[in-house]
Every structure is written in structure tokens, then in C-alpha cells.
């Protein structure tokens, strides 16, 4: 479960302090599929970074699985990212010199998984996203949709409870976007909590709930489907 | 994350920029290679110098240098041969002494029919043959019977043979040495080498020499010890024994090997210091090259660092990754440098006729030192990598 309590985030630009997030209060239950929408610059990515423990709030408290991670140090946050959270990015963010399989193995290297188990689990994850025949390809030799599937496989390989995707379909065509969203849907049905940032209403439709962010505040939180 | 995995990762990222990695290594390769060359040749030279001073086969010569008082008391003392046969027998009793090589030399003339030549005539004891190679080009060498029977036989140098006999075979001819007949039994080999002109020489068994010149004293005495370690003791004992027998204070002397070894050691230390500082500077420059390239690499791979952090790499793990990468770079450079230096040193010593010596200590030192350079100069870039902000790194283009 994710609980954000009066989260504020501000950045210093020169001497000027700009408030990007203003008093965010949000709860996301285990197993939810949430879409975050809002105009450009409204603070969606900033919010995702805080939820993903890549950034710390300027004030407020963040409880993840009941633990107050807003007080965690860098090392503890790295452990949380490694074990409890999977990231999917708009630009895929695969390491270009590693094959699909090695890219998927990366999070397990930092988790200290043995070489053999790493390989087995990476193969399993790639099979799950339907890429068992592309395992030894370098990212350059994969299409956008395939790259994003590798990224999803990498995000789920450590079996996190939460997968965060910041505009995962932003660089893909409509058809590919749909199949990627189907993939998230499938994961969600297996019990993984999913939070997706998107600009497109059709993408948000895959989620159970849509959260609208405007000027660093949550404007509305509306359920698309009955829970 | 294990060291091996880090190493494999480092190798693959170095391989991704082959040219750059090789060029960066070049500084380390040249630095380490130069050190190995200089050290190898220096150590080889030191070993050669020491063996030359010690003499081949653990030998040391005994010098006679009369004190001022002795010279005042007997101004002709230097004309007399300093070693008696008694001395030789006493020296042979010293336990560390294996052989006493003794010889006496006098300037005289050799004549056959009307041809006359100025020669130096050397009487030698049998031990002399064991240490000095008197190889005969034709005829035979001295036998034990020649020494024991004081036979009137002699070996002549190649130059003397040319002077007295021209093209004729001298073996069996009788020549007059200091007006006494001596049979020529052999001709010595022509001395080799560019600057060896040879000299007019005759060698006789010592007893024969003694009869001809009416002198029983030796002018040169060289000791041979059983081992290099015993040589110093043997020399000291011999000198004090002779001084006691002749009632002198320190007229009989041997070269003090320890002092000379110390002197050589001092020279070597100064050389090492100079070379060390030059090598240090060149390796420092190489290290800065490594640091520079690693900084570029860290900046270029900002996004990779961001991705790794997002996937759960701690700052420590990122630091270690880049440290091992720079260490791998300098280690490979160092190993190549060692082999290159080794090869070059062997080549130089092959052509210069000067031995080279690459000890395992030097190799180990080279390996460890190049690793240390990688770590020292890798700290700054690795630290920069580990301090990166994951979000900004992910956004980096
Ligand atoms: N590190 C930073 N330093 C200064 N300002 C920042 C920083 N990160 C974000 N901002 C600012 O915060 C605001 C929100 O940025 P954010 O990336 O969260 O927006 P977004 O909702 O994700 O927009 P988009 O839909 O375009 O991705 C922007 O005005 C941005 O300029
Ligand atoms: Mg954004």
C-alpha cells in the first residue's frame, strides 16, 4: 500500500524556489491499477519519482508497505527500488551494449542473485512478455514495442509488488501501445500494483482509477471501473 | 555483486571503446615498460660488475703494498718478489682456501739462432692452469710431470712464435730463454677480440723458472675459495697470515669485497632513485590520462549510471564498478608494459652483450603498482559517478 501524506516538493532554481508538488495526499491500495494524468509540467513525473523512491519529498511523509521511506538514506532507498519497485520508462532505458537477457538480469545482479538463477528467472520473465525468441538481441536490433517489453520484463524480474511506468507508450504507435497496456493489465491481474502516467485517455482507460494532477495538486480521483 | 562480475563488466565496457582504452593504456604501458627495462638492465649490470670484481670462480688477488717505513728501510723492496714458497704453503693450509695460484714474472730475452726477442717469462704453479685458460693452438699443454720434474719445457705466445719462427713449426725446437735452453712444447691460442694484439710471452713450470732465474719468489698470488661466501674470510685470513709471517702491519692486502659491494649498492641506490623519480613522473602522467578518460567515460555514461541506480545499484556499487574499471585498465596496461619491457631489455642485452635481470619481485611490483595507479587515479571519476543524482542522470542526453 502507498500512502502519501501532505507531500510537498520544491526545486531551487538560482535563488528562486518553485513549488512543484503542493500538499499531495494519496492512497493507492495493493493490487490497484492507477493512471495519473494532467497537463505538461503539472508535476506527474516528479510525483512518480517520489513514489518510486528515486527522489525524496521536501516535506510530508511517504509510507510504503507501512514503512516511512521519507526518512530512508540513499542505501536503504536503493534496496527498496531494487526489491519492491519496478520501473518502466518512456525512453525504455535499456543498456545498449547488453543483450535483452543481460538487461533483464541487471536488477538481480544488485539483488545478489546467483548467476544460474539469474539466467533462469530472466528467461522466464522474457517468456512472459513474449520475447523468448529475442533474448540474445541487442536493444538496437529490437523494435520500440519489443524494447518496452524487455523493460517490462526487467521491471518484474525481481517480483516487485509495485510497477511504475512514466508514459510507457509515449514513444509507441497506437497498436503497440495497446499491446503494452494489455501486458500491464495482465500483470495487474496477477496482483501487481501498477501506476501509469499518461497523456492519452485511451491508455488511462486500462486503469481502474484515474488521478488528475494540476499545478502540483490532485484535482480529482475518479474510478473508471467498479472495484 | 562479486569482484569477478565487476571485472567482466569492466572488461566489456573497455572493449566497447577499444581504441580509447588502448590509447589510455599506452601511458601506463610506456611508463611500466620503461621502469622494467631500466631495472632489468640495471640489475643485470650490477650483477655483472660484482662478478667481475669478485673474479671468476671465487678468486681474489693478494696485493703487496709496503708501508712508508718499509720503503725507507729498504728502498729496493718493491723490486723483490713479495711471496715466498713458504708463504704459498702456509696459505694452502687455510681451511677456506681451495687453491693458491701463484706465478712469478720476469722480463728477459728469448733467442733462437740469431733471432732475439724481448719477452716476459712467467713461471706458474700447477694450480694456475686450473684457473687461467692457457689453451694451446698446437703442441701440448703442461703435464704434472713437467711441474714435478722441473722439466725445461715452455709454452710460447702466438706473437712470439711469429717473431722467432715465422711459418716454421716451433714444436720441439730449443730456444734460449735468459741464455738457458728450453724446449717449446706448445703455442698458445691467438688472443681474440678487436683490441687484443697479443704480447711476447713464455710460460714455464715454476721450478724450471726458479732454476733459470735463480729466484724462488712469486710476484702474483691469487686465492680461490670454496664458495663466494668463504672468499671474504679466506682473503682476510690470508692477508693477516702473511702480515704476521713477514712482520708487517698491513702491507699484504686483499680487496675488501664488502666495501666495494657497498659502494656499488650506493651507486645503484642513487640510480634507482633517479630512475624511480623519472618513472614516477611518467606513470603520474599516465595516471592523469587514465583519470581524464575515466572522467569522460563517467560523463558519457551518465544515463547508464542513472539506469543502474533506478534498478537498485547503491552508490557504493557504482563507485566500485568504476574503480575496478580504471584498475583493470591500468592493470592490463601494466602487464603489457612488463612483457614489452622484458622483451626490450632482453633484446638490448642481446645486442649490447650486457646481461639483463627481471626478478619476480620486479614483476610483482609492476603488477601491484599499476593496479594502485588505477585505484588512485580512478577514485575521482568513480566518486563523481557515485554522487550522481539518479533522476538527472536518467534525463541526461
Ligand atoms: N530537477 C528539477 N529542477 C528544477 N525544476 C524541475 C526539476 N524537475 C522538474 N522541475 C520542474 O517541475 C515541474 C514539473 O515537472 P514534471 O517533470 O514533474 O512535469 P510532468 O507533469 O511530468 O510534465 P510532462 O507531462 O511534460 O512530462 C516543471 O515545471 C519542471 O520544470
Ligand atoms: Mg513527465
UniProtKB/TrEMBL annotation, chain A:
Name of the protein this chain belongs to: ABC transporter ATP-binding protein
GO cellular component, one term: plasma membrane
Family: Belongs to the ABC transporter superfamily.
Record GO terms (molecular function): ATP binding; ATP hydrolysis activity; transmembrane transporter activity
InterPro entries: AAA+_ATPase, ABC_transporter-like_ATP-bd, ABC_transporter-like_CS, ABC_transpr_LolD-like, MacB-like_ATP-bd, P-loop_NTPase
PROSITE patterns: ABC_TRANSPORTER_1, ABC_TRANSPORTER_2
Keyword ATP-binding included in the entry's annotation: yes
This protein's UniProt keywords: ATP-binding, Nucleotide-binding, Transport
Domain of life: Bacteria
Domain annotation ABC transporter: ranges: 2-227
Pfam families, sorted: ABC_tran
PANTHER family: ABC TRANSPORTER DOMAIN-CONTAINING PROTEIN, IMPORT ATP-BINDING PROTEIN
From TrEMBL, chain B:
Protein location: Cell membrane
Molecular function via GO: transmembrane transporter activity
TM ranges: 21-42, 270-298, 319-352, 358-380
Location of the MacB-like periplasmic core domain: 21-238
Alphabetical UniProt keywords: Cell membrane, Membrane, Transmembrane, Transmembrane helix
Membrane topology field: Multi-pass membrane protein
Residues of the ABC3 transporter permease C-terminal domain: 277-390
Gene Ontology cellular component list: plasma membrane
One Pfam family of this chain: MacB_PCD
InterPro entries, per the entry: ABC3_permease_C (IPR003838), MacB_PCD (IPR025857), Macrolide_Exporter_MacB (IPR050250)
Family under the similarity heading: Belongs to the ABC-4 integral membrane protein family.
PANTHER family registered for this protein in UniProt: ABC TRANSPORTER PERMEASE YTRF, MEMBRANE COMPONENT OF TRANSPORTER-RELATED
Full protein name: FtsX-like permease family protein
Organism: Neobacillus thermocopriae
Amino acid at each position: 500500500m502507498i500512502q502519501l501524506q501532505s507531500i510537498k516538493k520544491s526545486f531551487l532554481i538560482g535563488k528562486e524556489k518553485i513549488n512543484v508538488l503542493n500538499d499531495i495526499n494519496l492512497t493507492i491500495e495493493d493490487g490497484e491499477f492507477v493512471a495519473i494524468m494532467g497537463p505538461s509540467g503539472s508535476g506527474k513525473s516528479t510525483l512518480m519519482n517520489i513514489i518510486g523512491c528515486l527522489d525524496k519529498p521536501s516535506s510530508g511523509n511517504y509510507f510504503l508497505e507501512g514503512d516511512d521511506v521519507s526518512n530512508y538514506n540513499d542505501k536503504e532507498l536503493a534496496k527498496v527500488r531494487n526489491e519492491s519497485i519496478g520501473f518502466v520508462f518512456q525512453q525504455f532505458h535499456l543498456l545498449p551494449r547488453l543483450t535483452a537477457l543481460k538487461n533483464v538480469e541487471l536488477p538481480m545482479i544488485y539483488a545478489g542473485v546467483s548467476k544460474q538463477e539469474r539466467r533462469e528467472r530472466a528467461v522466464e520473465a522474457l517468456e512472459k512478455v513474449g520475447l523468448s525468441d529475442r533474448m540474445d538481441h541487442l536493444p538496437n536490433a529490437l523494435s520500440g514495442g519489443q524494447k518496452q517489453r524487455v523493460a517490462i520484463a526487467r521491471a518484474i524480474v525481481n517480483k516487485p509488488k509495485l510497477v511504475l511506468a512514466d508514459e510507457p507508450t509515449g514513444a509507441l504507435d497506437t497498436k503497440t501501445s495497446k499491446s503494452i497496456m494489455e501486458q500491464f493489465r495482465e500483470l495487474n491481474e496477477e496482483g501487481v500494483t501498477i501506476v501509469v502516467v499518461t497523456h492519452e485517455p485511451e491508455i488511462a482507460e486500462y486503469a481502474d482509477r484515474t488521478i488528475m494532477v494540476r499545478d502540483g495538486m490532485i484535482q480529482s480521483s475518479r474510478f473508471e471501473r467498479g472495484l | 555483486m562479486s569482484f569477478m562480475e565487476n571485472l567482466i563488466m569492466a572488461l566489456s565496457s573497455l572493449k566497447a571503446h577499444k581504441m580509447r582504452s588502448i590509447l589510455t593504456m599506452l601511458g601506463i604501458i610506456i611508463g611500466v615498460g620503461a621502469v622494467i627495462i631500466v631495472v632489468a638492465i640495471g640489475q643485470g649490470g650490477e650483477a655483472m660488475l660484482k662478478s667481475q670484481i669478485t673474479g671468476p670462480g671465487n678468486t681474489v688477488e693478494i696485493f703487496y703494498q709496503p708501508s712508508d717505513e718499509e720503503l725507507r728501510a729498504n728502498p729496493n723492496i718493491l723490486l723483490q718478489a713479495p711471496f715466498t714458497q713458504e708463504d704459498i704453503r702456509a696459505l694452502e693450509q687455510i681451511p677456506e682456501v681451495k687453491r693458491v695460484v701463484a706465478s712469478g714474472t720476469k722480463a728477459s730475452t728469448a733467442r733462437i739462432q740469431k733471432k732475439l726477442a724481448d719477452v716476459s717469462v712467467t713461471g706458474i704453479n700447477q694450480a694456475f692452469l686450473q684457473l687461467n685458460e692457457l689453451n694451446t693452438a698446437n703442441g701440448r699443454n703442461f703435464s704434472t710431470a713437467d711441474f714435478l720434474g722441473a722439466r725445461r719445457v715452455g709454452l710460447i705466445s702466438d706473437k712470439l712464435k711469429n717473431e722467432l719462427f715465422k711459418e716454421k713449426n716451433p714444436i720441439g725446437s730449443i730456444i734460449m730463454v735468459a741464455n738457458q735452453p728450453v724446449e717449446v712444447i706448445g703455442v698458445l691460442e691467438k688472443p681474440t677480440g678487436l683490441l687484443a694484439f697479443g704480447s711476447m710471452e713464455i710460460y714455464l713450470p715454476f721450478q724450471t723458472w726458479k732454476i733459470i732465474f735463480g729466484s724462488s719468489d712469486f710476484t702474483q698470488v691469487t686465492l680461490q675459495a670454496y664458495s663466494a661466501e668463504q672468499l671474504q674470510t679466506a682473503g682476510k685470513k690470508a692477508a693477516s697470515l702473511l702480515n704476521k709471517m713477514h712482520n708487517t702491519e698491513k702491507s699484504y692486502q686483499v680487496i675488501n669485497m664488502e666495501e666495494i659491494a657497498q659502494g656499488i649498492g650506493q651507486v645503484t641506490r642513487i640510480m634507482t632513485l633517479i630512475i624511480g623519480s623519472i618513472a614516477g613522473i611518467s606513470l603520474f602522467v599516465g595516471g592523469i590520462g587514465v583519470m581524464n578518460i575515466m572522467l569522460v567515460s563517467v560523463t558519457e555514461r551518465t544515463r547508464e549510471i542513472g539506469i543502474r541506480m533506478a534498478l537498485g545499484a547503491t552508490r557504493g556499487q557504482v563507485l566500485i564498478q568504476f574503480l575496478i574499471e580504471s584498475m583493470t585498465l591500468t592493470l592490463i596496461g601494466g602487464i603489457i608494459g612488463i612483457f614489452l619491457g622484458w622483451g626490450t631489455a632482453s633484446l638490448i642485452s642481446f645486442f649490447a652483450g650486457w646481461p639483463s635481470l627481471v626478478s619476480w619481485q620486479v614483476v610483482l611490483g609492476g603488477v601491484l603498482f599499476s593496479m594502485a595507479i588505477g585505484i588512485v587515479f580512478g577514485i575521482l571519476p568513480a566518486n563523481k559517478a557515485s554522487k550522481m543524482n539518479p533522476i538527472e542522470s536518467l534525463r541526461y542526453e
